[in-house]
Write a structure and sequence with these properties.
Order of helices and strands: HEHEEEHEHEHEEH
Distance between the termini: 61 Å
Number of strands: 8
Shape: globular
Helix content: 25-40%
Strand content: 15-25%
Radius of gyration: 17 Å
Largest sheet: 6 strands, mixed
Structural class: alpha/beta
C-alpha cells in the first residue's frame, strides 16, 4: 500500500511537467521588421522582412527550402513525436488543412526526437498527407522563436509572421487559416 502513495505524487509531477512542456498559448506577431521591439520579430524574419530561411530534410526523403513557400500563405506546425498534445491535435491540423483545400500550405516541423520516432508519429496520427521536415538541431524552431510544442507560425504571402505557442484546435486553426488566405 505504501508504494501506491509514492507513485501517485510521482505521476502527478510527471503529468504537470508534460503539460508545461507542451505549450503555453502565447502568440507573438512579426511584420518582418527586424528592428521591432517584439523579440519574435527579429528571430521570425530576416533583415529583408522575409520569414526565416532554411533548408531541411523531408520525412520520407528529399529536401524542402523555405523559398518553396515564399509568396504563399503557409502555416508551419511545430510538433515533437513524444508530445501527447501534438498527437491529440494532429486530426485538427489535417482537418483544417483539408478545409482550406490547398489555399494555405501546411508544413509540419518535427523536432526534439529521432527521425524514426518522427516517422512513427506521422504514421500513427494519419498526417502523412502533409509535408513534414526534420529539425533535429532545433534551428528552425529557434529561428521562429518557438520554445515549446505544439506551436504554429502563420506566414502570409507578404512574409508577415505570427507565431502562436500552444494548442488551437480545428475551429481556431480554420479561422486563422481563413484569415491568412483572405489577407
Amino acid at each position: 500500500m505504501r508504494s501506491n502513495r509514492i507513485r501517485l505524487p510521482a505521476l502527478l509531477i510527471a503529468f504537470a511537467a508534460t503539460l508545461a512542456a507542451c505549450g503555453s498559448g502565447e502568440a507573438t506577431t512579426s511584420s518582418g521588421d527586424a528592428g521591432s521591439a517584439d523579440p519574435a520579430a527579429s528571430s521570425a524574419s530576416d533583415a529583408s522582412g522575409a520569414p526565416a530561411q532554411f533548408t531541411a530534410d523531408r520525412l520520407g526523403g528529399g529536401e524542402l527550402t523555405s523559398a518553396s513557400f515564399a509568396g504563399k500563405d503557409t502555416v508551419l506546425w511545430f510538433w515533437a513525436p513524444w508530445c501527447t498534445v501534438c498527437r491529440g491535435e494532429a486530426d485538427d491540423v489535417v482537418a483544417a488543412a483539408g478545409a482550406l483545400d490547398g489555399k494555405v500550405e501546411v508544413i509540419g516541423v518535427a523536432g526534439r526526437g529521432e527521425a524514426s520516432e518522427m516517422e512513427g508519429f506521422v504514421s500513427d496520427t494519419g498526417t502523412r498527407a502533409l509535408t513534414h521536415v526534420v529539425d533535429d538541431d532545433g534551428s528552425i524552431w529557434s529561428s521562429y522563436d518557438v520554445f515549446a510544442q505544439p506551436a504554429y507560425a502563420f506566414i502570409d504571402d507578404s512574409g508577415s509572421v505570427e507565431v502562436f505557442v500552444g494548442a488551437l484546435g480545428e475551429d481556431a486553426l480554420v479561422e486563422r487559416m481563413n484569415a491568412l488566405a483572405e489577407a
